[in-house]
């Protein structure tokens, strides 16, 4: 009997045994079902978060440096960072004038306020002050209209560019250009609408923002005068040189004496990447631990039921050995049976996990992809093989004479 024939025969015997004990087999797979649901949802969440992170981080730009008062991630005491001087609009303008390695420099700041149009009000809208380079650096494209011009920024003109969702909420299908939006006591003329950008890190919508010239923003809305400067470096290969140039220019602009620590931070995309990898590693580790516990419980249940199955079929094993069945054949038969039970449990688990992943996707990014399905089924089969090995080994090692005497 060749190996493929043994597998085929093992599958037939396994399905017959499962069909003969449907209730017992179903109860046995409960632990596996729970484990597979857990591992599938965990993998779905991690893959969804990774995809959302990559989409969001692409909006930051690998060739963009952010100069701000606060570092994105820091090991310095919080009070030390808090006591830094704010970066002012004039600091950003001086940096822009003196740097040599950037294609574009945007100066921006933000706050949250209510925005009104006629009798409609949108609350907690992000108001962003920016300059003429803001759209290019952030990778924004215009759905209609245009971005601010340098003259409008220099002249502190009361104009605005709105996000796609905000424009839809206020104007519907009406042409938005030329309409007036009111923030506090000031009216701003809409000159453009940004194409949809999605959410940052899967949470903060970028399509409900209102963009103003930074000069107008500072005049009308900035309680704290701090700004962030985005610098798009001309050549990716010169990121380190550009960072050092910007550091030197900022120290000169802020009149820092030699030997004094920087009172600003230069942040870049890789800081987010490093932190996200740390967080995702911790999440994956916790998820694997929880999944491992669930599968271990399920595996113990499979092992127990396989020992019972071997005990019930001792005489059958003796007869098969008496007519020439090899140890390998008996071992393979029970391994296939254990793996089949776990595979069926895995399929049920996937059937439960799929609608749950759809629900999860409403609250956080979740993607049930084919690799995750394959991983879940592979884990199911592996659990069955590991859990069924000892019972299968015991069956394969039986003495045929003693097995035939069993009642």
Description:
By secondary structure, the chain is α+β, with helices and mostly antiparallel strands. Helices cover 57% and strands 18% of the residues. The protein has 15 helices and 12 strands. The strands form 2 sheets. Strands 1, 2, 3, 4, 5, 6, 7, 10, 11 and 12 form a 10-stranded mixed sheet that branches. The chain has a two-stranded antiparallel sheet with strand order 8-9. A hairpin with a 3-residue loop joins strand 8 and strand 9. The radius of gyration is 32 Å and the shape is elongated. The two termini are 29 Å apart.
Helix content: 55-70%
H/E element sequence: HHHEHHEEHEHEHEEEEEHEHEHHHHH
N/C terminus separation = 29 Å
Q: Flag low-confidence runs.
A: none
Number of domains: 2
Strand residue content: 15-25%
Radius of gyration (CA) equals: 32 Å
- Note the main sheet: 10 strands, mixed
Shape: elongated
The number of helical elements comes to 15
Q: Based on helices, strands and strand pairing, what is the structural class?
A: alpha+beta
The average pLDDT score comes to: 82
Total number of beta strands: 12
Q: What order do the helices and strands come in, and which of them pair?
A:
Blueprint (H helix, E strand, L loop, with lengths): L2 H18 L1 H7 L1 H31 L3 E5 L9 H5 L6 H10 L3 E16 L2 E11 L3 H5 L3 E4 L4 H5 L4 E4 L1 H8 L8 E4 L2 E9 L4 E2 L3 E2 L3 E5 H7 L7 E6 L5 H15 L11 E4 H44 L1 H9 L4 H34 L9 H27 L3 H6 L2
Parallel strand pairs: 3-10, 5-7
Antiparallel strand pairs: 1-11, 1-12, 2-3, 2-11, 4-7, 5-10, 6-7, 8-9
Helix pairs in contact: 1-13, 3-11, 3-13, 3-14, 5-10, 11-13, 11-14, 13-14
């Amino acid at each position: 009997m060749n190996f493929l024939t043994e597998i085929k025969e093992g599958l037939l015997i396994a399905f017959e045994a499962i069909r003969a004990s449907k209730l017992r087999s179903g109860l046995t797979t409960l632990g596996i079902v729970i484990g597979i649901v857990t591992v599938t949802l965990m993998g779905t969440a991690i893959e969804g978060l990774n995809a959302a992170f990559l989409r969001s981080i692409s909006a930051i730009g690998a060739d963009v440096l952010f100069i701000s008062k606060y570092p994105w991630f820091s090991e310095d005491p919080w009070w030390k960072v808090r006591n830094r001087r704010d970066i002012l609009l004039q600091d950003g303008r001086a940096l822009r004038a003196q740097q040599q390695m950037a294609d574009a420099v945007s100066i921006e700041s933000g706050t949250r306020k209510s925005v009104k149009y006629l009798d409609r009000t949108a609350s907690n809208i992000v108001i962003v002050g920016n300059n003429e380079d803001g759209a290019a650096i952030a990778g924004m494209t215009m759905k209609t209209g245009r971005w601010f011009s340098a003259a409008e920024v220099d002249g502190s003109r009361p104009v605005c560019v709105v996000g796609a969702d905000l424009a839809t909420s206020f104007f519907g299908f009406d042409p938005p250009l030329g309409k007036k939006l009111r923030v506090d006591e000031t009216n701003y003329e809409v000159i453009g609408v940004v194409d949809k950008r999605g959410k940052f890190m899967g949470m903060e919508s970028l399509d409900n923002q209102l963009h103003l010239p930074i000069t107008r923003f500072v005049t009308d809305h900035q309680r704290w005068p701090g700004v962030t400067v985005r610098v798009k470096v001309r050549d990716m290969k010169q990121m380190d040189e550009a960072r050092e140039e910007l550091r030197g220019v900022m120290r000169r602009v802020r009149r820092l004496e030699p030997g004094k620590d920087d009172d600003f931070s230069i942040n870049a995309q890789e800081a987010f990447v490093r932190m996200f990898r740390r967080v995702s590693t911790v999440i994956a580790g916790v998820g694997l631990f929880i999944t491992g516990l669930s599968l271990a419980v399920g595996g113990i249940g499979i092992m127990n039921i396989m020992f019972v199955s071997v005990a019930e079929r001792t005489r059958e094993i003796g007869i098969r050995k008496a007519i020439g069945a090899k140890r390998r054949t008996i071992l393979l038969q029970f391994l296939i049976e254990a793996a089949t039970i776990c595979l069926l449990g895995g399929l049920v688990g996937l059937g439960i996990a799929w609608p749950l992943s759809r629900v999860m996707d409403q609250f956080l990014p979740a993607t049930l992809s084919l690799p995750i399905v394959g991983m879940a089924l592979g884990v199911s089969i592996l659990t069955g093989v590991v859990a069924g090995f000892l019972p299968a080994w015991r069956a394969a090692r039986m003495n045929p004479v003693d097995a035939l005497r069993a009642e």
